[in-house]
Design brief:
The complex is a heterodimer of chains A (65) and B (159). By secondary structure, chain A is mainly α. Chain A contains five helices and no strands. With 159 residues, chain B is mainly alpha-helical. In chain B, helix 3 packs across helix 5 (121-158). The relative contact order of chain B is 0.11. Classes of the chains: A mainly alpha (65), B mainly alpha (159).
């Protein structure tokens, strides 16, 4: 699975650490790290929660072109 | 299914998020598979040794109890999995065939008659071992039928 750089950059734009994002969506920091590294495929519920916190759409963060 | 209450041990999943649970459950499945295979082989070897040595009744009874317990857990796993049609489709198709179930019934009758024939204690132990094994397969056949029914229902609802 490829790295999710879109998530990483969206998080950086919002000036959020992995820990802050993790707390906002109710998961551990390791999970956010694993998603960014492409080691974990999140559930749709978690994707939506991340999108809401980062003010992005699912396509913007999780659609591979 | 909550078997044991919340405890501070490795098998307590409270506090884990979805990724941690996904990984832990995946590992637990593999560990369960390994443990089942190991315990099955141990119980089989213990019964064979008990039959060959013909000395230890406790040895044989322990093997039977182990086999019974692991098969019970295996069946519970099958029942729970079949409720959502999560049994391996190749396995469930094979096990649900009428020929397979009839075959196992015949096998059970033949083996138990063979072992019980002499009426010796260790023949009886081996016979009971085979009956447990065959009964497990027959129950798995029934569980597989249910699993296939759930899958077919889902396909019907889709169309």
């Amino acid at each position: 699975m490829a790295k999710n750089l879109k998530l990483k950059s969206a998080r950086a734009i919002k000036d959020m650490s992995q820990q802050a994002l993790a707390e906002a969506v109710g998961v551990s920091r390791q999970t956010i790290s694993a998603i960014e590294k492409g080691d974990y495929n999140p559930t749709i519920n978690l994707c939506i929660a991340i999108c809401k916190v980062l003010d992005k759409t699912l396509d913007e963060l999780f659609w591979e072109e | 299914m909550k078997i044991i209450g919340d405890t501070h041990d490795l098998l307590n999943d409270s506090g884990l998020d979805e990724m941690q649970k996904a990984y832990a459950y995946n590992l637990a499945f593999k560990c369960f598979k390994a443990m089942y295979c190991i315990m099955f082989v141990i119980s089989f070897v213990m019964v064979m040794l008990a039959v060959a040595v013909e000395e230890s009744v406790i040895f044989a009874v322990t093997a039977l109890v182990i086999e019974l317990l692991i098969n019970m857990i295996y069946i519970i796993f099958g029942i729970k999995s079949s409720k959502i049609g999560a049994i391996n489709p190749m396995f469930s198709k094979y096990m649900a065939r009428p020929g397979t179930i009839v075959g196992y019934v015949i096998l059970g009758v033949v083996y138990s008659c063979h072992y019980f024939r002499d009426g010796e204690l260790f023949g009886i132990v081996a016979g009971i071992y085979m009956i447990i094994l065959v009964a497990t397969f027959i129950i798995l056949g029934a569980i597989s039928k249910k699993n296939n029914k759930i899958i077919n229902q889902a396909e019907d609802e889709e169309t």
